[in-house]
Design brief:
- The protein contains 44 helices and eight strands.
- The chain is mainly alpha-helical and 1007 residues long.
- The chain has a five-stranded parallel beta sheet with strand order 2-3-4-1-5, with helices on both faces.
- Helix 24 packs parallel to helix 26 and helix 42 packs parallel to helix 44.
- The radius of gyration is 36 Å and the shape is elongated.
- The two termini are 70 Å apart.
Length: 1007
């Protein structure tokens, strides 16, 4: 059902399939609901992470950038042979700070592009800078998509993509945003063949190196610079090394450059040479400077060195300063006073070991310095293996303390999550999994839940797998925390389409929870519900339903009907009943549950809205889509007021409203609603979010049903292409998209293409889902339908028979899908001219529909239609009359006597009387229908023309040739004009008009 989500068990609770369980509401101001392309960039949103305070030389490179950035395109700035520390980022920052404004580039945004996650994070930050209110309602993926749309719709901006390690990470961004400018820094030397300009940046010239050292060292006034040139040469003219050495000299005015050179040369030879084969000159230079600087820093404030060793494990940029408040000092793990933290940060900044951005309260640390601080060296007292280990432990613990209280379900906390995820990722990347601590496992579990909730299940799975491995290794398979991670990993596996993996993980969670807590514990019941939800997604409907029924009985026994867990379990059971085709049971159950929700949780609680959503779906499935439409409208208004227009709940309800219009036979209105839902989901969730892809697929299907295949086919093809790219070849949604494309080609008459696609889907579903999955059975029927449409009944009938036998075996005699399968097989027999085999199938279909769905359900009415048509084809007109009477009575009860569909069924009933040889019963019914349709539909409507034709036939049969000829003539005239010469109604009217005229003329002659 549209808008459903795969819930994740939070803290071991019950995950409800089809219901979002966050308890937050965010009301967006109207101005943020505009399309991204229409949003103007506010002033003051440039975000350089730092301004290089000391920059010298590089005039040739700066002039090259001036020329290149005057026109739109991409500038790739890279270091020779991947050398770090030569000042790539400093050059970019200096150019932006001093020259971007003169070229009217606005805004300028800086993105740390060292990974796909870094790019996405930077784009999300851009979206928040454009529309801050979006931070608390859109996921990270949706924010990134919003930013991409904004970039694509504007010009004049500049993105600095810093430290690109793989061009593939930014390829999508470059392709979708051609209207601005990119300044890219990278250590890669050979991959920028498509760049507008490539600047190969080397170390500084000797004169520039000396000027940089002099500027920093003499900032406070003149001083002795003896040995300055020799020091620069000894540092290899590496900007990072020169800056850090100069910062040291600036803080120690009694030292000369030659004195500092002596300190460097006191560094043991082992440190300089260690790893010389695998360490770059830049890394060796930084290692030497590091030793000298930290010797001094540790003398002044030892805690500053503790901080530096912890910061080395985070991402290099935008490290929240608040994390450092949780890093203890010394070996006794005492928490420092705020003034000590501030003093340590100031000292490290003064020695150029870190950069500070007071505006954002974030810190940055050069990657070379971080790498050095994380590398143990027993000959370096600041990198003793134990100290490096302690630094990692403290970094992990500080992140854990910040993350632990954060609920990843609460949109109000998403901005804080977004600021922390890059550092959790970096910590995990730099820590060997075998050395994970309990805090790391908890971090990864929480981060996995957040990423899955953001629609990033593929990024969540590795974190959750690693957390599970630690829990099982250190706490055992039955520990509650292990079960918690198992549930979350199962949900993430489900999110990437791994049904088998999700089932296996959920089964392990149930077994572990029951062993630890016993069968009657609420957590054990919740684990059973989670497992049932996964079985439901895997198509094992009966098994899932039985499990949830038992869970509901246990929950009622333990907590009562008003307990939150009971309410959620009841919603799950209603969803299972819908999947099983027990529509009336779902409607009855959820009617009660929605009332309990409103009483216990409140009218505007998100779970009350969710309960009403399932209730409305049940009403629609029970055969009353017309009733569902106003219910969806009411629910949508309530959610828009309480949650905002772009909240996932609201979007889900609007999608279901479109589906209700579609089921009500109003494809035009459905298409309008779907188009708006697609637009809103693109804006709120992003182009590639599964719910966006689902909405676009539903729009395509609505165009197919409306017969507009010119729009449906390219839209279906796009959905398939997107799902292949985002979800993969074997994801159930990808298979569904291919089947929708087959349906569009079938509607367009391209049966060969439809058969090819349907056959591929059937093969894939047999392989991925197995022969008994409901989707596999649907694929068999769909392939048979296309064969039947092409007239290849020898292939269609065996496929229908196989699908019927499988459905009987898997679903049972009373499943509501059985009548449709029997109807299809009966239709094939009728096409083959064998009504004798069709009629028993239709009678069985009708009996099942009446028994399981009731007399007035649309499926029952379809079965009545099919059986009546079969009797007419077999020449049993009298048998068709009572069936047509039942159809007309049902329409009168459900739609009203003046509804267009009711009048149409009255016309069919009259025709049945006529064919049964009873024109006297047919005539008054046809006359009344004729008058009502002319008033309701107008004289040009096909239903009216059909009734007029049947009325003429009744007059003709009764011998009233004058009236018949006049009506035949009127129908013929209108039908030719509206339907064309070759329409069946036109040809029938012409033949009957000629026959009646000939009969009249024969009578006149006989007289």
């Amino acid at each position: 059902m549209t808008g459903s989500g795969n819930a994740v068990a939070d803290n071991g609770g019950i995950a409800v399939s089809g219901i979002y369980n966050d308890h937050s509401s965010v009301l967006l101001p109207p101005e943020v609901l505009r399309a991204a392309a229409k949003v103007k960039a506010p002033r003051g949103m440039d975000d350089l992470p730092y301004l290089p305070g000391h920059f010298v030389g590089r005039e040739a490179e700066l002039q090259t950038l001036d020329s290149a950035l005057r026109v739109s395109g991409q500038v790739h700035l890279q270091a020779v042979h991947g050398l770090g520390g030569v000042g790539k980022s400093a050059l970019a920052a200096h150019w932006v700070a001093t020259r971007a404004r003169s070229q009217r580039l606005r805004p300028v945004r800086w993105i740390t592009a060292d990974s796909p996650a870094g790019v996405e994070q930077g784009l999300a930050a851009l979206a928040i800078a454009l529309q801050p209110a979006l931070a608390k309602v859109l996921t990270t993926a949706a924010l990134a998509e919003y930013a991409l749309q904004w970039l694509a719709g504007h010009t004049g901006w500049l993105l600095v993509l810093d430290n690109v390690t793989d061009p593939a990470d930014i390829a999508g961004l470059l392709a979708r945003a051609p209207g601005g400018r990119f300044l890219i820094t990278s250590r890669l030397a050979t991959t920028w063949t498509t760049a507008t300009t490539v600047i190969r940046l080397d170390v500084l010239d000797p004169a520039e190196s000396l000027a940089l050292l002099t500027r920093i060292t003499t900032a406070a006034g003149p001083r002795d610079l003896d040995g300055a040139a020799e020091l620069c040469a000894d540092l290899g003219h590496l900007p990072l090394g020169v800056v850090q050495a100069a910062a040291y000299l600036a803080r120690n005015p009694m030292l000369t450059p030659r004195d500092y050179l002596g300190l460097l040369r006191e560094d043991p030879a082992g440190t300089y040479q260690r790893g010389g084969e695998g360490r770059t000159a830049a890394e060796r230079t930084v290692a030497r400077v590091w030793r000298v600087t930290l010797n001094r820093v540790s003398e002044l404030q030892p805690y500053a060195v503790d901080l530096l060793r912890a910061m080395a494990w985070y991402g290099p940029d935008r490290i929240p300063a608040g994390l450092l408040d949780r890093i203890p000092a010394g070996t006794v793990e005492t928490m420092p006073a705020p003034r000590d933290v501030a003093g340590a940060i100031g000292l490290l900044n003064a020695y150029s070991m870190i950069d500070v951005d007071p505006a954002t309260r974030t810190l940055a640390m050069h990657r070379l310095v971080q790498g050095l601080a994380r590398t143990p060296d027993p000959d370096d007292l600041h990198r003793d293996p134990m100290l490096v280990h302690v630094g990692r432990y403290r970094a992990t613990h500080a992140l854990h303390e910040v993350v632990l209280p954060l609920s990843w379900r609460d949109p109000a906390l998403w901005p804080q999550w977004r600021s922390l995820i890059p550092h959790i990722d970096a910590l995990a990347r730099n820590t060997p999994a075998a050395e994970d601590l309990p805090d790391m496992a908890a971090l990864l579990n929480q981060a996995g839940g957040y990423l899955h909730g953001q629609g990033l299940a593929d990024r969540a799975v590795p974190h959750l797998e690693r957390a599970l491995a630690h829990r099982e290794r250190h706490q055992g398979p039955d520990h509650p925390e292990t079960s918690h991670v198992l549930n979350n990993l199962a949900a993430a596996r489900l999110g990437i389409g791994d049904l088998a993996g999700a089932v296996a993980l959920s089964e392990r969670a149930v077994a572990a929870t029951v062993r630890h807590w016993g069968e009657d514990h609420p957590l054990s019941i919740g684990a059973q519900v989670n497992l049932a939800a996964v079985h439901l997604e895997a198509g094992e409907v009966d098994r899932a339903t039985a499990m949830i029924e038992q869970a509901l009985a246990d929950s009622l026994r333990l907590g009562g009907e008003g307990h939150y867990a009971t309410i959620m379990t009841r919603s799950n059971l209603a969803t299972a009943y819908l999947a099983a085709g027990h529509f009336d049971r779902a409607l009855e159950l959820q009617t009660r549950n929605a009332a309990i929700c409103a009483r216990v949780l409140g009218e505007d609680h998100p779970d009350t809205h969710a309960a009403r959503l399932i209730l409305t779906q049940a009403a629609q499935a029970a055969g009353d889509p017309a009733r569902a439409v106003p219910l969806y409208e009411r629910l949508r208004r309530s959610q828009e007021q309480a949650l905002g227009e772009d909240h996932p709940h609201t979007l889900a309800t609007r999608s279901n409203l479109a589906s209700a219009h579609r089921a009500s036979g109003n494809p035009g209105r459905a298409i309008e609603e779907y188009e708006q839902v697609v637009e809103d989901r693109v804006r709120a969730l992003g182009e590639d979010h599964p719910h966006t892809l689902a909405a676009r697929g539903q729009l395509a299907d609505a165009h197919t049903e409306a017969g507009d295949t010119e729009r449906a086919i390219p839209l279906c093809a796009r959905v398939l292409e997107d799902r292949l790219r985002v979800l993969g070849e074997d994801h159930p949604d990808t298979l569904a998209a291919r089947e929708s494309l087959a349906g569009a080609h079938r509607e367009a008459g391209d049966l060969d293409r439809a058969i090819l696609l349907c056959g591929q889907v059937l093969d894939d579903r047999l392989r991925v889902l197995g022969p008994n999955h409901p989707d596999t059975l649907n694929s068999q029927s769909n392939l048979a339908l296309v064969h039947m449409q092409r007239g290849d009944l020898d292939k269609a009938i065996p496929l229908f028979e196989e699908a019927l036998a499988a459905r009987l075996r898997v679903l049972g005699e009373d499943h509501p899908h059985l009548p449709a399968t029997r109807l299809n097989l009966a239709s094939a027999h009728l096409e083959a001219g064998d009504p004798g085999r069709a009629i028993p199938l239709l009678e069985q279909a009708l009996a099942t529909s009446v028994r399981t769905l009731g007399e007035d359900h649309p499926h029952t009415v379809n079965a009545l239609h099919g059986l009546a048509s079969a009797h007419r084809d077999a020449g049993n007109a009298a048998e068709a009359v009572p069936l047509c009477e039942r159809i007309h009575a049902s329409h009168s009860r459900t739609l009203g006597k003046d509804d267009a569909q009711t009048l149409k069924s009255a016309s069919h009933l009259a025709l049945a009387h006529l064919e049964a040889g009873d024109p006297e019963r047919a005539l008054p019914l046809l006359k009344a229908t004729y008058r009502a349709q002319k008033h309701l539909l107008g004289p040009g409507h096909i239903d009216f023309l059909t009734t007029a034709h049947n009325l003429a036939l009744a007059h003709h049969t009764a011998g009233r040739l004058g009236k018949a000829i006049r009506l035949y003539g009127t129908v013929l005239f209108m039908s030719v004009r509206i339907l064309g010469e070759d329409d069946p109604l036109t040809m029938s009217a012409r033949a009957h008009h000629a026959a009646a005229t000939a009969e009249r003329d024969a009578r006149r002659t006989a007289r």
